[in-house]
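Handout, tutorial session.
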Amino acid sequence: MNLDLLRPEICLAVTAIVVIAVDLFFRHKLLVTITSIVGLLVSFGMAISLIGSHELSVGNGLFILDNYAIYFKFLFLGIACLVILASTDYVKRLQNLHGEFHALLLTATLGAMLTATAQDIIAMLLSIELTAISLYALVAMLKNSKSSESAVKYLLLGAVNSAILLFGLALVFGFSGSTSLLDIAQTVSSIQVGNIADNAGLIFGLVLILAGFAFKIAVVPFHMWAPDVYEGAPTPITLFLSTVSKIAGFSILVRFLLTGFSLPESLSNNWGVILAVVSAITMTAGNLLALTQHNIKRLLAYSSIAQSGYMLIAVATMGIGSFHTISSSSLLYYLTAFAVAEVAVFTVIIIASKHKDNDDIADYAGLAKQSPLLACAMTLGLLSLMGLPPLVGFMGKLYVFSQAVQHDLLWLVIIAVVNSVISACYYLKIIRAIWVDAPASADNIRSSFAPKAVLLIACAGILLFGILPSILISGTEWGADLISGIWEFFR
């Protein structure tokens, strides 16, 4: 089975078990956090050791180890480490649930890593559900009415989504005769250009699978869960949902489409056009709904929905465009830029929530006078999400938009630019409250060293990758390299 190539994931699974044991036998809860961080760092080191591995197939074809998978391992482990560090003060609210919080966070990260590596639809489904089940419990961890209500909504909608996804995967398996994406690709590529309609069962399965993925990445019309869950979940989990969970959804969406359904070109053009239309609707709906929000977590939920629309531009380009550019790293760049900005913004909310009565935007009035560091970090994060140069968010949008223009998606880029202008209205509303409005309290906002370190790391990433984008581009091009290899294999 060659499971040695899954040693980062195995290390993370062992760490989750050790965390529970440490929480059970030791009184000092800081040891739980330290154990989690050490496990993540060791797993990160093991992922580094996989670079250059020539053995791609893992577990008899269930998983594949390529640059694409390794890049997402780095991304998920890095974000999980930052989330745990940012929540060192927040977890004190969870009373006796320190061990459960960290263990579930680690298993959710484990599921995300396996999702990006899966090359078999059974492995893909199990990996997705491992992340989802962990998140259902994490959302309810505050045990108050709002958190419990959000968890129930998330669980019920997630169960329906899982059923839809499973039905779609079953149809694809039934009509292709295999669970391997490579075997499915051979079956799909043999379809004659004029006979796509004759394979209605297979195409219907693809539509259901796309609907299942659409729920995971929160795009219209499967976005309805995001605002309620973002608002009711513990803020560190909201950060995790908006980054790791969303990025995992995009990672498997891209692998599934490009490996299994990239040929014939008429089929890829069709799903490319569909995703382009969904992208336009999603970014427009997300930004317009965000304009009316007064709760900062709900506003950022709709902002995250709009960001998914921008990300879908890159995926649509892969379907519509010429496939010699499949190795384009624009999506990986944008996902990373989005994650760095989200970490900065939500870490500020995590720190400030200790001193705020609720999550209303009005409660952040005068934040600059209470804590200049928090104000600067949130401002940088919001401006990056808005796409203001020279921050990393601007470079991400420029990268994605330029690729789309080169492949005859100018109309979609125009819609995206208009939506970026609309988004400035609600981002600047928050920034105005932070810097211009008078604070409700003159008390300074204090936090421990770890959350401040996360802010400094996130802000450094926003500035460094924006001013020197070649640093990140070189990494994302390496991460996207073997996607083109898959295409060339079938071409």
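The second record follows below. Compare its token runs with those of the first.
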Amino acid sequence: MEYKEKVVLRFINGKGVRGYLKSINHGNETIPLETKEGRKEINLSELKAIYFVKTFKGDREYQERNVYGLTKTKGKRVIVKFKDGELITGFLEGPIPWKKGFFLDNPDPSQKGFFLLPTDERSNNIKIFVVNSSIEEVVVP
């Protein structure tokens, strides 16, 4: 298995880990991550989100702008509020992956999360896989 994409995994407990990921299967409970220490199986239920990044270094000085209108619309606008209070904005990659109004009350167990594209093209994030179990609220403005 060849690992291609640079990712930063953010855990529910606030910790993070960097590594390489080949792909995500929406139905799997775990993902294979290649790190400096070797290959690890990470349980999705422990994660908040997976950030697919341009570089591991990033730019700590850059303040990402979570505002719509900075780029051409890439899909449906979404605001995600995580259980830890963090808010992120983005565009859904693909169709809305839930029935309107029923996402949090009646989640599809076969879908562990969904992809967001950042609103700021200058962001170090290419896309974000948001883990359903880490979400408090989703707003489609």
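Points raised in discussion: DSSP finds no helices and ten strands in the chain.
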